[in-house]
Specification:
The chain is of the alpha+beta class. About 35% of the residues lie in helices and about 30% in strands. The strands form three sheets. Strands 7-6-3-4-5-11 form a six-stranded mixed β-sheet, with helices on one face. Strand 4 and strand 5 form a beta hairpin. The longest helix is centred in the N-terminal third of the chain and has 19 residues.
Length: about 300
């Protein structure tokens, strides 16, 4: 397949602008195959996975995790992506079969698939007793604008977010990636103005990736005049951490009554992971053992 998926973290020489650039074509194509998404669902999921992947890499701790949950009033229902500080990302959409006509400019109508009314909920699990939960209202359902608004309103961190997914005629992912620009407190007025001009005139990120540019080249093309310095480079990939043990605890949490019904009516259970569609089977002996656990 095309180039590797990775993210670079960069800082300009005046320490006024921080930019993360990601290419995620392979990751989003893997998600499309697992969930068998339509093009508009692929684009919504891909943008969200990319955003979460970059935000995961902003976390400091080994076990820190972040999730982006988008609940709009559109037919996709929910878009969810979870990422950790190691570049491992997973996610799904409520309805992978949503199909909408293209917008008048020929682009996928992610805004209407997500819905313009609703919320973006961001949960940071930093290993403390309570996770940090921030939320903001959806602005357009296009995801990048919604994330930009979230950063400004919920975290008071002025940022600019670009996310893009290009779907090929055969429905596979041709290009996917994004960048998040964060403005640091000591930025000068003129630099801020220049940055805004550059962002307003930048080529769509999916087009830059489709033309074969890697994160370093995108950085140079879009932000070259700020003399950005690359601080870190990190692989990013679709990884699910589900296991039979995990789903055992999910079954136990159903409680005694539900488990009894499953045992009496079906004598076995098949449980699938939402994130990777892997199925796990539990036979009657295993279910009886879980029922004992549930009683405790």
């Amino acid at each position: 397949m095309n180039m590797k998926d990775y993210v670079i973290r960069t800082l300009d020489k005046d320490k006024a602008i921080r930019v993360f650039v990601a290419t995620t074509t392979n990751m989003v194509e893997s998600a499309r195959r697992i969930h068998n998404t339509t093009p508009v669902a692929t684009a919504a999921l891909g943008r969200t996975l990319t955003g979460a992947g970059v935000m995961g890499l902003m976390l400091k701790g080994e076990k820190h995790k972040i999730s982006i949950q988008i609940k709009g009033d559109g037919p996709l229902k929910t878009v969810l992506a979870v990422a950790n500080s190691k570049g491992q990302v997973k996610g799904y959409v409520g309805d992978p079969n949503v199909d909408l006509p293209l917008k008048s400019n020929g682009k996928l109508d992610v805004g209407n698939a997500v819905g313009k009314n609703g919320r973006m909920i961001i949960i940071r699990d930093l290993g403390l007793r309570e996770p940090y939960i921030g939320q903001s209202k959806l602005i357009s359902g296009e995801i990048a604008e919604d994330l930009t608004y979230y950063f400004a309103s919920s975290e008071q961190q002025p940022s600019a977010v670009a996310l893009g997914v290009l779907v090929a005629k055969d429905l596979s992912v041709r290009a996917s990636g994004g960048y998040i620009v964060q403005i640091l407190p000591n930025i000068s007025e003129e630099k801020l103005k220049r940055l805004e001009e550059i962002l307003n005139n930048a080529e769509p990120i999916s087009k830059l990736i489709d033309e074969g540019n890697n994160p370093e080249e995108i950085l140079e093309k879009v932000f070259g005049e700020f003399e950005m310095e690359i601080k870190e480079k990190h692989d990013i990939n679709l990884t699910c951490d589900c296991s039979k043990e995990r789903l055992e605890s999910a079954l136990i949490s159903l409680g005694e009554k539900e488990l009894r019904e499953i045992i009496e009516e079906d004598g076995q259970a098949e449980v699938s992971c939402h994130f990777c569609n892997t199925s796990y089977n539990f036979n009657i002996e295993e279910l009886n053992k879980l029922l004992e656990e549930a009683k405790k």
